[in-house]
Design a protein that fits this description.
Number of helices: 2
Largest sheet: 10 strands, antiparallel
CATH architecture: Sandwich
CATH topology: Immunoglobulin-like
Distance between the termini: 39 Å
Helix content: 10-25%
Strand content: 35-45%
Number of domains: 1
Shape: globular
Structural class: mainly beta
Radius of gyration: 16 Å
CATH class: Mainly Beta
Amino acid sequence: MTATALTGCGVHAPVKPQERLDERTGITIATLPRPIELVQLGRQTFEKRLSFAYLGPVEWNRAGNVSYSLWVHVAPGDDAPVGDLRLPGQVSVKLDDGLLTLVAVDTPSLQIDAYQPAVAWGQTVQFDLSAEALGRLASSHVLELHLLGANGSPIVFLPSRADHLSLQDYARVRRAGAY
């Protein structure tokens, strides 16, 4: 299985982004109510726990100067150790129209977290995300997170549920300028 179509069934209730103000810096961030959960592609057995990954878009509003990032958190199981996510070429997202290679960025230190990490021992990194890349992410029916393992082998994560509609809602509201 090399691609996963994100399709949902039934009625979709629009997801409203959460906006929070960091009072110390004056920066407002807008996030999904919860990050998208992905599970490592592979066969789970009783002897090993698979790794999970989580991702979510973040809008940074600094007095009207808006930028985006993609928050990624990896909660490693006891299967394949993940390499350092901050290194160049370590993380990419497969979308309908190809790979989106992610580049780690430093973000302001805030009193609030964009998302809550799933585990304390995981890796959490923010990646640069342009408005165009956010649109690609939101419109894609394929969403796979590709990482390199500590030994250089590829590790693929697939969504555990169809969350692409929440990404579409997020992108639509952010483009409309709803702050």
